Amino acid sequence: MCGIVAYIGHRVAKPILLEGLKRLEYRGYDSAGIAVLEGNKLNLCKAVGRVSMLEEKLENKEGFDGSLGLCHTRWATHGGVTDFNAHPHRDDRHGIALVHNGIIENYAALKTYLQEKGHRFASETDTEVLAMLISELYEGDLEAAVQAALREVTGAYAIAVICEKEPGTLVVARKGSPLLVGIGNDEHVVASDAAAIVAHTTQAFMLDDYNVVKISKDGFRTSDIHNTPLTPKITQLEIDLQEIELGGYSHFMLKEIYEQPKALRACVSGRMDLREGRVVLGGLTNFAKELTKARRVILTAQGTALHAAMIGRYMLEDLVKIPSTTEYASEFRYRNPVIEENTVVVAVSQSGETADTLAALHEAKERGALALGVINVVGSTIARETDAGVYLRVGPEIGVASTKAFTGQVAALALVTFFMARKRLMSADQCREFMQEMEAIPGKIERILELDSKIKSITEKYVERENWLFLGRGYNYPTALEGALKLKEISYIHAEGMPAAEMKHGPIALINEGMPAVFIANRGRQYEKVMSNIQEVRSRGGHVIAVATEGDNEIRKYVQDVMYIPDVCEPLSPLLAVVPLQLMAYHAAVLRGHDVDKPRNLAKSVTVE
Ligand code: F6R
Question: Does the C-beta of 351 come closer than 6 Å to ligand 1?
Answer without folding.
Answer: yes
